Amino acid sequence: MKKLLSILGAVGLTATGASVAVSCGTKDKEENKAITIANVEKAVGEIKELKDLAAVNTALAAKLKDTKDETLKGIKSLTAAFKADSKTNVTVTAVAKDGYKLDKTTFDIDGAIQDEGTTPPTTDIKIDEVITANEEFADLADAQAATILAAVEAKHETLKGKIQITSIDETAKTAKVEAASGATGITGTQTIKFTVVASTTDIKIDEVITANEEFADLADAQAATILAAVEAKHETLKGKIQITSIDETAKTAKVEAASGATGITGTQTIKFTVSDSEVKN
């Protein structure tokens, strides 16, 4: 009797263990959460015209990193590879995390990589959209093209190196801005206004140069030679004066403000002599 009970007990234990094993296996299967590849594709969203395959895989990895999307939380990795005979379309292989199960493992993305044969559209800068009509640039040092250009480029950095000043009206205090010669990606023109800062310390030629001041032993009686001698002696006048008349008999010349020069006024008559060696030659 004892032997029979022992056998029955052993059989009971074996049956119970088997039941537990079957039960656990069923439970594991039930815990695998189903994910459809269609939902994965939807969660990934648009990936279009990236530089290359590496850029696509970088974008896919970024989709998974710290994701809050419930579908992507169950995805371990997403890896793209070129579709057969294509340089722009890819097939993405998805791998599920433990506890998740995919109905399919791949989906396609067409146009994920930029076609090398296409050029991205460019948008030209329009000068008349960047600079408003009659926009004012105040208190410039002078009315020279370089000064006006520097003021415009300082205010509108997107135009730097792409524009030029093509005309200046000093009376109306206006200037025309156009695309620089040879510049690309920029179109249009615009008229601007400017003001020149009033100088409180104008140079007075007749205070710098004394009347009939003499400049001796010049190489010749040419305006450029006389001008160079005057500017060498009075450096504050350099680039601001011109010789407007020369009397070779009286050996006199008239000094005036250069055309377009600002911050300088007055005139003066000077005397000069030409080197004897130059005269003899």
From TrEMBL:
**Keyword Signal in annotation:** yes
Source superkingdom: Bacteria
Do the record's keywords include Signal?
yes
Q: Give the signal sequence positions.
A: 1-20
Query: Which InterPro entries is this protein grouped with?
Result: Lipoprotein_mollicutes-type_CS (IPR054816)
Cross-referenced PROSITE patterns, in alphabetical order?
PROKAR_LIPOPROTEIN
Keyword annotations of the record: Signal
> This chain belongs to which protein, by name?
Spiralin-like protein
Q: Which classification does the entry list for the species? A: Bacteria, Bacillati, Mycoplasmatota, Mollicutes, Entomoplasmatales
